[in-house]
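User: What would this chain look like folded?
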Amino acid sequence: MSLTGTPFLYTTVVLSVVALILPLVLWSRMRGPKAVRAAARVLMLLFAQATAVTLIFVLVNNENNLYDNWADLLGTGDHVQQAANLGQDGTGGIALKRLPKVKQTFAAADGPGMRAAGGVEVTQLKGRVSGVNAEVYVWLPPQYHEAKYRNHRFPVVELLPGYPGSAKAWFGSLKVTEQLEPLMRSGRVAPFILVAPRTNLLAGVDTGCANIPGTVNADSWLSIDVPKMVTDNFRAAAVPANWAVAGYSAGAHCAVKLAVAHPDRYRAAVSLSGYNDPIGERNSLAAQSVALREQNNPYLLLRKAAAPPRIALYMSGESGDGYQAGVALEQIAKAPTTVHVVFLPRSAGGHNMALWRPQVPTVFEWLTVNMGQSHVRAGTTPPEPSSAGSTHAALASGSASRAGAVRKR
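Assistant: Here's the prediction, encoded as structure tokens.
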């Protein structure tokens, strides 16, 4: 039975009700020796507590899409077949244009939000470069099947979850397709193809979207294997100017890092409550050494770039949770790099889906404009916030407080 499926949720609800009724019905009707009756009552109480805790976990997991399946929850999943040393550019010297086309079979995806707005498709992809074998979810915009778009190549946005997090989270918890479909039909948002690859590749750790020889090639999985599969199977634009990556929390860090590190692959990135230093997620493999932290810190990558990359970054967050990370990048960015920072007051919420979900329309309107896909009325993006009161140390580190450096999703 699927961890995130409706049958499992209904099962836990039924068991919780049964566990509540049992003591009410049987408590005074127990027969037998005193010790046996006491043991039976204790077992009923434990059963009631266990079912209640399980039900709460299922509800929280379904709301936040933390664990996609039992392997993720139990820490037994491993989606890395090999992790060769692929070099600084993550290609291993492979001429990517010469690789044969990747032809995939797709099926309708199951789970919350996966059937909405035309439905999401899923495929199991074996990454030829990265050595990763994992699922990838794809949603096609409403225009994709219209006759007048039959020769059109669509822009693409990769969607990354936090840690722990499911690749389904953007479709389920953030309701991205339900929110965007009417905006795409009205023309306010460009008809993007949405792609959500698995990022939880190793049991019990966050890959930090990094390439670590002998362990994982998460960067190459996200920036090479997944894009190639998409362009080989759909009418997706192959040029970097039509590709963007968006994420929340740990996925936000990955999104910005991928765009800064690979301006030859992405034009824009969106960070919702992200961080710069990989130590923002202490379970990240990219935080295990100073060298890895430096290699995967977008602030340092941007500062050390030989030439400012032609990328646009959207950074939103509360004070101590994403905002300072954005301001840090904004302060060192030089044309043609642009950084749009959005300050969110504490009253807006916390580090959760309720904070990120309402930002989806604005984020994609911003992507539409900054990727040159359409004209959008002026004033649809939030005004530039002030960075007054932020200390230099906080701006440089991307974290204004201890709490901002230890986010868990």
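The first strand starts at residue 107 and ends at 108. If you want, I can go into more detail on any region.
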